[in-house]
Amino acid sequence: MIRPLFVALRLWFLLIAFVMAFVVAWVFPLLLPLVQITFGVFLLLVGIDGWLLFRPTPGKQTAFFARRDVPDRLSNGDENPLTIYLENQYPFRTDVEVIDEIPFQFQRRDVLFRDRLSAHETKAIRYELRPTRRGEYSFGAVNVFVMTPLGFLKRRYQFEVGKLVAVYPSFLQMRQYELLAATNRLSEAGIKRIRRVGHSMEFEQLRPYATGDDVRTINWRATARRTDEQGTALVVNAFQDERSQPVYCLIDKGRPMQSPFDGLTLLDYAINASLVLSNVALYKQDRAGVLTFSSQIGQFVPADRRAGQIGRILDVLYRQKTRFQESDYETLYASIKTHIRQRSLLLLFTNFETVNGLRRQLPYLRRLAKDHLLLVIFFENTALRTLIDQPAQDTEQVYQKTIAEKFAFEKKQIVRELQQYGIQTILTAPQNLTANTINRYLELKARGAI
């Protein structure tokens, strides 16, 4: 009974006040009886407070109940909702303090909630957590400190002691894009509407002409056979995007991908974007696959569109870790040459900081581009961009801006060098990676380049 008992701040203040009152009564003895009576009443109230907190509740195992509702897995880089349910079984109003022991990876010590519950009332406390690393997270207990209206003592209740939760790549973002795609609202996530300059040769059906259709798709023979009350009704050939095209996300796990941005590493941004893109590719009836590499080849998921493919990709991406070594593009080329025989769209998530760093790997990228449609995706240094945009105040800042502009120019030079050899490129800020990658995939698909 002693371990769950805690003293409220109000009790300490009153004890200090009584000490001062007894000191004053020592100076003025006439006040001593009044102070003693008041102190006796105070002790009686403290006893009543303790009895109210610890008295047995008829028909209930405990007078207060709490439960943490946390998903079995969290989405990396996203705000994940959590809920703590509180149920007051006391026959009087209670003030509560709730301390949730969240995993140490969050490095937060401020998960404290205060609330007031009426007798037999139930409440829900909702908050969000944003993990920035994949792996297992261990939640501790939900500590609830309950006080009666007197507020002298607290009784601690502990619930939900120990719970392991896995943090997976951003499946919440994946579901968001999937929902927007299903409702034709991808533009809300920054996905552009692609203007088709042509169409694939895969015929789907005949349908009536609608405003905006390409007049070159009018089927004159079908039009001649179909008339309505007002005359001839135009009929057009409807084409569909080519399907079952292999789409592979190649994820570099080398040293440059460990660079952090907004709590996440570049590797995690690449993993989240790969998961979303793979899901969009499957939604577009293409085959999605993944290959990870660094100094050696990591995991390989062959491109497929069978049921459960996105689950297999998710499980593989969950286990990826950065290897603090230089990536071996020669081994990557040899592996792709062996395992990927059909012409495919290869989206290479990597990061080149200098032109010399690119040129060391350029021969292998050119070979890949001969056999496949290669799209190299690498990252802007947003910290340098912020430094460049700020006006210089002194000579030191002028030097810093000059160096920052040099590195930013090298990034643009890398883009030009890749494009010189017909290699598709995306230079993007990490926060725009997913939208920019999907935009380019849809553009290439609309052009029939895959």
TrEMBL record:
UniProt entry keywords in alphabetical sequence: Membrane, Transmembrane, Transmembrane helix
Membrane-spanning ranges: 7-28, 34-54
Q: Which residues form the DUF58 domain?
A: 206-375
Among Pfam families, the record links this protein to: DUF58 (PF01882)
* InterPro entries registered for this protein in UniProt: DUF58
Identification of the protein by name = Uncharacterized protein (DUF58 family)
**Organism of this sequence:** Spirosoma oryzae
